[in-house]
Amino acid sequence: MTLPAAAQSAPDVIHGLAGLPFAKGHGTGNDFVLVADPAGDRHLAEAEAAALCDRHQGIGADGLIRAIRSRELPEGISVLAEEPEAEWFMDYRNADGSLSEMCGNGVRVFVAFLLDQGLVELAPGEVLPIGTRAGVKRVERRSDGFAVDMGPWEFIDPQRAAADASDATVTAVGLDVARPALSVSMGNPHTVVALAEPSELAGLGLHTAPAVDPVPPHGTNVEFVVPSEPLVADGVGSVTMRVHERGVGETQSCGTGACAAAVAIRYWAGAGAPDRWDVVVPGGRVGVAFIPGADGREHVELSGPAVIVAHGTLG
Fold first, then answer.
1. Checking CA distances to 29, which of 15, 60, 64, 144 falls within 20 to 30 Å?
2. What residues of the chain score a pLDDT lower than 50?
3. Alpha carbon distance 193, 182 (integer Å)
4. Taking the model in full, what pTM does it have?
5. Which residues are CB-contacts of 120 (< 8 A; sequence separation ≥ 6)?
6. Known catalytic residues?
7. What's the CA angle centered on 130, arms 132 and 283, to 5 degrees?
8. 3-state secondary structure the chain
9. For 90-147, what is each residue's pLDDT tens digit?
10. Pick from 300, 281, 304, 272: which is nearest to 141 by CA?
11. Residue 15: left if φ>0, alpha if ψ -120 to 50, beta else—which one?
12. Where in the sequence is the active site (predicted)?
């Protein structure tokens, strides 16, 4: 008798994927298993994605990215209606196998993977539109990595944010009391907490998911942020961040989380706060910039490295 995938162990599930080529990549330590499936021949189910991302019995990663042509997915067809040049779609799953709208580090690694596989050509300074479940993201290749127009940001509860400068409280292991927080959408949900001291940040126990009240409708990622002293130097703001990602746990970096952290700290800093930010995460450093969008709204640009570190075939 064959057990359903959900009842099988990670090794059993992976055994059923024997012969599947893959790559491993990361952006500031946020790591991914990547699979090329241009024609949509290899659907990877939730249990298969979770098994591949298992750090003890699988390859190990914060998420799984499948490179598929947009025309092969219903979500991708919708993207093509918006942007006919968005040939490639980033089909992304969290480490637990759940679908996710967007990953800022992941989309940079995705483009590095497309280049690595010879699926696209992109010279420094050129821009490639990519389909995601959060819409089209335009990725520019730079000499030191990639920059992504992450689109417009918005508060999840704009009325409460405007009235109180916070819209939730967060409780976490290592914090003595619940802290005020601000929830920001970057196409996926984030809740940002400002801490006063680096020691508070270091003392967090993010092996346990923080409790957010009220939690956004589809769950949330939670960022804990310590502003630098001074906050701004040479016109650039700087913060240090740790993050607990929904469906994953603590990660070395979160691109959309870095954007959300910059949005919240800039909002709290008030008038005169800069439009450029450095966000230091356990896996490195990313840049965040606020730029005018073609739609007349303020967009957020995320920049940083992306590295493909290994290739393999499942045995």
1. 15
2. 1-6
3. 7
4. 0.90
5. 87, 88, 111, 114, 128
6. 103, 254
7. 80
8. CCCCHHHCCHHHHHHCCCCCEEEEEEECCEEEEEEECCCCCCCCCHHHHHHHHCCCCCCCCCEEEEEEEHHHCHHHHHHHHHCCCCCEEEEEEECCCCECCCCHHHHHHHHHHHHHCCCCCCCCCCEEEEEECCEEEEEEEECCEEEEEEEECEECCHHHHHHHCCCEEEECECCCCCEEEEEEECCCEEEEEECCCHHHHHCCECCCCCEEECCCCCCCEEEEEEEEEEEEECCEEEEEEEEEECCCEEECCCHHHHHHHHHHHHHHHCCCCCCEEEEEECCEEEEEEEEECCCCCEEEEEEECCEEEEEEECC
9. 999 999 999 998 899 999 999 999 999 999 999 999 999 999 999 999 999 999 999 9
10. 304
11. alpha
12. 103 (proton donor), 103, 254 (proton acceptor)
Q: Please, which contacts does 116-121 make with residues 24 or more away whose CB atoms are closer than 8 Å?
A: 116/23, 116/308, 117/23, 117/36, 117/67, 119/36, 119/38, 119/67, 119/88, 120/87, 120/88
Residue-wise pLDDT tens digits, 55-94: 999 999 999 999 999 999 999 999 999 999 999 999 999 9
Is 221 marked as a binding-site residue? yes
Tell me the one-letter amino acid at 77.
I
Is 138 marked as binding a ligand? no
Reading the block at residue 37, the tokens are 């499936």
Q: Which residue has the tokens 């696209």?
A: 120
Is 126 annotated for ligand binding?
Answer: no
Cα–Cα distance, 119 to 34 (Å, whole number): 13
